[in-house]
Design brief:
The structure is a single chain. The relative contact order is 0.23. A hairpin with a 4-residue loop joins strand 6 and strand 7. This protein is an alpha+beta fold and about 170 residues long. It has 3 helices and 11 strands. The strands form 3 sheets. It has a 5-stranded mixed beta sheet, with no helix packed on it. The longest helix has 17 residues.
Amino acid sequence: MPRFPKMALMLSTGILMLAASSPAVLAATTVQVRLWDKGEHAMDMLSRARPMNMARMHSMMMSGGMMMGPMGITASVTEVPAGEVTFSVTNASTGLLHEMVISPVPGGTTELPYLQEEMQVDEDAAGNLGEVEELDVGKSGRLTVTLTPGVYLLYCNIPGHYALGMWTLITVAP
């Protein structure tokens, strides 16, 4: 039998109480993310989609144009504090597979590394920080990442989906 079981119990209880009250132990921020489209025929608009770059993305964001596409990503918040962030992602489509990738948005006028022939973002060049891969219709997944202050792009990288509006921006505040 341990010699100091009562002291060990008191010590561990005190540590648990201290940990529970410490701000450093606060739960991660959770962002609800909804992947959506306007039905299985949403891909029909791909032939009319213009190539994406950072200037076009910024222009669309400022005008609200990205919400006019046949596909999109809706986040429950657009700004989160720096630290651990959990993305709870749901594919709300009625017929299409979707995914969510997160990458940092570079400052300045840097072009987004979009591979026009593949109709996808070059995830490695964009700095893929993680993803919830290929969710079937109605399915959900989670991704937890630690983010520093800056702007981040959430996007679907299934061919053609990004160009059809499946992206949104998240700002991480200090």
